[in-house]
Give the backbone structure.
Amino acid sequence: MRRALVPALLLALAAVPTARAQVQVPDSTYVPTVARPAFTTRRPVVMVDEAHHNHFTAGGYYRGLAALLEADGLRVVPGTQPFSAELLRTCDILVVADALGDARATGPEARRSAFRPAECDAVRDWVRAGGSLLLVADPSPYASAMDSLTRRFGVETGKGYTLDTRRVDEEMNNQGSIVYRRDQGALGNHPILRGRGRDERVDHVVTFNGQSLTGPPGSRGLLVLGRSSWDVPFTADARHETDRRLRALADTSSVPLTRGSVPAMGRFQGVAFAFGRGRVVALGEGSMLSAQFLLGREALRRGRDRLRIGLNRPDLDNEKFALNVMRWLGRALN
């Protein structure tokens, strides 16, 4: 789900949600606790990029994620400078989520590269030497703006929207909110999904309107797309049609696919891999790691004033998934 409203408008709509307005706001009531923190003798530094018009920041939509990681013993800091070897030496894990080429997500420059070539080279060399990277790229314009960086690591993104006509999350009730369950074979085989024991095993994850991707040879799929999944293209010519379809998704779970849609089976919404001496996790959807409320028509249709998105959903394992991703990147999982 993409959010392009300015903060003042978000606050106004959050105060009085209407049947026609639909907005997402951080869940300020989310206060995570971790029963068995992974980082007790050392505190790796997690730097969350904020220097590239990022949608997700540690003080914004990822404030819940930052609180969860701090509870696990990590130290979260904002990254406010362009990437360089000097900057990257100050952190252990770098998070780059939904960067843009322009401050306006709807502007014509938003899809241009968010990074200079030298920045991409610096991140690649840092990971190859042993750094850890979490790449999060939602559908375009974010995927297009981040393409120069994701391709440095052999990650290919679909850039359009990924739907699943059968594995639909009942809470959100739209085809873009995809269910990944272990008992349905939709979760891969990786330490991130196994955790340190049965209590940390990931069995049920939901994504919230993202894209598909593939990793380089040797990468491991975490969130596996199946036979009922489709990639809906996002191009300049198809933009208005895609926007119309997305508006319709808020009202029904059975929307006809647009022209040019292709099967997404064999692709993923999450992959993990080693890169030189470093580690990389790439995700095709960012809200799954946030803690948000959806206000407006979807909630009102259910007789409620809000719906939960991400870490604050107690019926999901998104919180375990987020912890295990960062534990693997921080080498508390092998």
Observations:
- Confidence is low (pLDDT under 50) at residues 1-20, 236-255.
